[in-house]
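Late entry, evening session. Most of the bench is empty. Finally got around to the prediction I had been postponing all week. Sequence below, unchanged from the version circulated by S.P.
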Amino acid sequence: MKTPPDLRPVSGRLGILLPGLGAVATTFIAGVEMIRRGLAEPVGSLTQMGTIRVGKRTDATSPRIGDFVPLAPLASVEFGAWDIFPDSAYTAASKAGVLSKEHLALVKDFLEGIHPMKAVFDPGYVKRIDGVNVKTGTSKMHLAEQLMEDIARFKVERGVDRCVAVWCGSTETWRAPTAVHETLEAFEQGLRDSSDDIAPSAIYAYACLRSGVPYANGAPNLSVDFPALHELARRESVPIAGKDFKTGQTLMKTILAPGFKARLLGLDGWYSTNILGNRDGEVLDDPESFKSKEVSKLGVLEHIFQPHLYPKLYGNYSHVVRINYYPPRGDNKEGWDNIDIFGWLNYPMQIKIDFLCRDSILAAPIVLDLALFLDLAQRAGMSGVQEWLSFYFKSPMTAPELYPEHDLFIQLMKLKNTLRWMRGVELITHLGLEYYD
């Protein structure tokens, strides 16, 4: 194992840049400001509420993660965003309808001071919405250069020393990688040629990496998950992570499926359907955008169950995913699962789950943790794909030769062991060998 990195201390201010100032981003910003004012608790955030065991169980040493590694304090955070609508964060949050009027009123003054920069937008990639706060340029490279100028200006105007970016925008239409994604040289030529194969999210990712800004992809878009931008991330020594925030229904799958596999219970089928009515639901009502989400959701079970290793238990199950746009539901998504399992002597059993969740409430602490952990990784000199952050994603990015780990509990162990490694302390294996010294 390589020597732990020299962690640069926290100093100065951290800018968190958000492509997309919709329900997730405004819920995140409003929540952080309420927490800073002592008006709320950071429930769901590992960086703010989680602990980490150090040493033997008999040592009873479990500091808060925020005390164990040098994370940027919330007081040092500044927010910036891009969006296709010019609404302030307060207006956008009011329209999103996630937080109550009473809660928004507590931080209205702060939210009204955040206005989005003009966005990079292509209606060919997001077909069900359109906006007026959009950049124009002579090429996609010109658009990327404008984003880089935005980042540089934001740092000066807000007095921040470093930035991270977390994609909170819409799901783009599904596209397979092409030759333009293979090398950085090909990608940059594609930007100059305004290649149709380069999505807006990839332009944001390129601009961030060129600016030395760590980047996390919260949607199932290709975005930063292709060889050209992996190459750029390594060249610029910038950490990247993704993709697709692991919130409602998929969160439940990564909790339940490892339990079934641990007990060697078989699976005949897993039917999942969702209804939601926010902007995300409207976008996903387009079949091409839904395809991106479907690919992200369907891969979870296959990687957890490993049917090639357990063909009698998981070699022939049916996995169906549906998402339906239902405007009255707003951001309060309902995820319904019917799970057909079988046990001893192949006797069938069923499990039914109805998760009435709040998508943005589950996503907001993920945005916070990713921002702070990516900043930590940057100060630790870590670059490229940060697989230890798979805990937060439906479709975790990995090195090309590796399959992604989807088991939530293995992901959490990997995350905490990475933090232990950063601090140069012994990794936890749960072998219990302290009693055999």
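Two things to note before I forget:
The radius of gyration is 22 Å.
Residues 359-379 form the longest helix (21 residues).
Will write this up properly tomorrow.
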